[in-house]
Amino acid sequence: MTTEKDIVLKHPKDPAALLDVIRDVQSRFGQVSDEAVGRIAAHLKLSEAEVRGAVTFYHFFSLSPRGASTVYLNDSITSRMAGRTAVAQAFEQEAGCRFGEVSADGTVGLFPTSCIGMNDQEPSAIVDGVVFTALTPDKARAIVRGLRAGTPARDQVASFGDGANQSDLVRAMVVNNIRRRGPVLFGAHESGAGLRKAVSMTPEKVIDEIKRASLLGRGGAGFPTGLKWEFCRREAADRRFVVCNADEGEPGTFKDRVILTELPALLFEGMAIAGYAIGAKTGVLYLRSEYAYLRAHLESVLAGMRRQGLLGKKAAGAAGFDFDIVVKSGAGAYICGEESALLESAEGKRGEPRDRPPFPVQTGYLNQPTTVNNVETLATAARIMAEGAAWFKALGTTQSAGTKLLSVSGDCSRPGVYEIEYGLPIADLLDMAGGAGAKAVQVGGPSGSCVAPAGFGRKIDFSDLATGGSVIVFGPDRDIFEVVSNFMEFFVDESCGWCVPCRAGNVLLKKKFEKVARGLGTASDLRDLEDWGRLVKSTSRCGLGQTSPNPILTTLKSFPELYAAKIRTGEEFVPEFNLEEAVQDGCAAAHREPECKESLDE
Amino acid sequence: MSKPVIATTSLAGCFGCHMSLLDIDERILKLVDLVEFNKSPIDDIKRFTKPVDVGLIEGGCCNSENVAVLRSFRKNCKVLVSVGECAVMGGLPALRNSIPLKECLEEAYLNSPTVDPGSGIIPNDEDLPIILDKVYPCHEVVKIDYFLPGCPPSADLIWEAVTALVEGRPLNLTYDMIKFD
Ligand SMILES: Cc1cc2nc3c(=O)[nH]c(=O)nc-3n(C[C@H](O)[C@H](O)[C@H](O)COP(=O)(O)O)c2cc1C
Ligand code: SF4
After folding, report:
1. From CA A116, how far away is CA B76, in angstroms rounded?
2. In this predicted model, what pLDDT tens digit does every residue of A68-112 receive, in sequence order?
3. What ipTM goes with this model?
4. Chain A residues near residue B140 by CB distance under 8 angstroms
5. Candidates 3.40.50.700, 3.40.720.10, 3.20.20.80, 3.30.450.40; CATH matching B5-94+133-178
């Protein structure tokens, strides 16, 4: 029988292997025991605290047992909207334990997790690494019964999705739901054409072409890609790296998943082009753990590209251009989508953001100059090289060139991915997606904006509603307060905890918001929400804290009437504290009757 | 003109903040000139005898009596100030908040090494205040107007805050007053 020791010793004595070792131990034993912590620390010459720190940082690692099989049920708002509560109850009844616990017989553990990138096919869960979508209570019960009867999760997937989801290397029930194919990502592309064109030019000319196309980063921040490559190329260094950010953690985004499933060769071509432009030999694909089911597929596409000569020594036949790509896995942490946290994680550490400057283009992966780009950005760069900057600039608007892949989910009849030209009004998108009568549209995920019908004329582009791609539609009967509460819970869970305004501020904001939602708020509570929200935004270190108050701040702005209806007017202060409730436990423990004097001086 | 009236109390605190108030040394003579004390452990006045301008609260609320006292302060004082960590955040007493109350009481009164086994009892005299499920910071129970952080806030900070309040002038916070480590 394999022991923890065997697994640990299999890995190199290199601290960078930390996450790989932990992942192996976790997946084999369902936990990282105290003994395993000691062994890993000794083997990698790390302190036990460092090992524990990494284990406790990531959602999918745990010091305590998670069960022989583990169910991670998505807890995002769309999952709730699609009937998560009943599914969760079915899991709990069948397993005989609550979420957050392991069943008494140790066979099944139930745990909630943040958005797993399946928002258009909720409720979804990951069971022992296998994705289950569109769950029903019956299906949930069947999964647990099957696991108990010894049927592995992968054998319980009855039918496969479309496209590459059916391939032998994926075999997932996930569906692509490609609703609209645009000319850039889904345009006809001869594999390798962009890369071959690139290597026929000088790297500087490639960067020029990307700059002329006005390509802006598709991951959310919208930084000009050509400029980023130029900065990186200019840094003096022996080694440089291209990193592809496939962490896709913003709730409601799943478009990178579709690119990884259907267009991986285009993405890898884009990485090679970036590598040629900046002078890198190695590309790293940082793949979120939730998409680990795509890994074998991706590795096989890479192998195919090596065979075709598009990767490896003299890539695309260019003398002196050696370029290859490795895949690194995450382990469940939204913050690892932030580029500097991603680099820490890719180096095998806790995914805590770094101080900036220095920026990754100066000091990135392994402290070498690194460009971190989103999946869609890199795939788009490959298309730009193939078709030319002028072709690309003719699409979209003057300020926001090209197309954007959107992930649309929630209350609409045609959820899925849409490749649209920049400048599309929300109203038109709602028409396309069948979201008539929406009460609100969340653009850009929890960290973006909640738009009311009055704003449905607003456009999706970098000058108005910038988005990494998440669009969630809320129908007329949805409770906006429940949405906001779910989003704030997400930020509270996902804060890395480094800075107080983000770690404590989001908890306080959430508490205060819930006080208001319970009808115990006053005008002064709304003022506090605004003030504290601004404070958290302006004093947090990274993009998470700088946007986490947005669910509250943007709804305060777009739905003032909802808040006005909740608060008590004419009262300066309403406490949440309730004396009768607060003395219950004390009375029970001492066997006393609750008898509370209201005031001493009356 | 009559002098501004001040009241103070210590709820779930350790009286350290009151000690810090007394640390103003000879300025206490000025204070006596400046203000009049009403209900306070400092002069041992037990009940409010007149309307009060400024109430200084030390400690959070850990039992029903704390709540009643705090509410009576709110009723009788124009301005209420949470003084010190325990009033502002719950402080050390709030460390019990992550442990269920029953467990805390059993550990203290039934299972503690100093209890004769089998003879312990969780205090239940009707005259005792009822302990709350958690320790609450004052601003969750009543409206608090100002907060003076520190454990304890330094004498200089308390002096500056109180004199600014009664003289109606803006606070002048120097670096050492708000440097806490
Ligand atoms: C909390 C947080 C999460 C992020 N998650 C992602 C992500 O999942 N995918 C992504 O491409 N960018 C993400 N970003 C943005 C990255 O930091 C970075 O800007 C981006 O990967 C750069 O690529 P681009 O210029 O091609 O957009 C995130 C940023 C923050 C602050
Ligand atoms: S803002 Fe939040 S997530 Fe970002 S570094 Fe600070 S604590 Fe971590």
Report:
1. 55
2. 999 999 999 999 999 999 999 999 999 999 999 999 999 999 999
3. 0.93
4. 575-577
5. 3.40.50.700
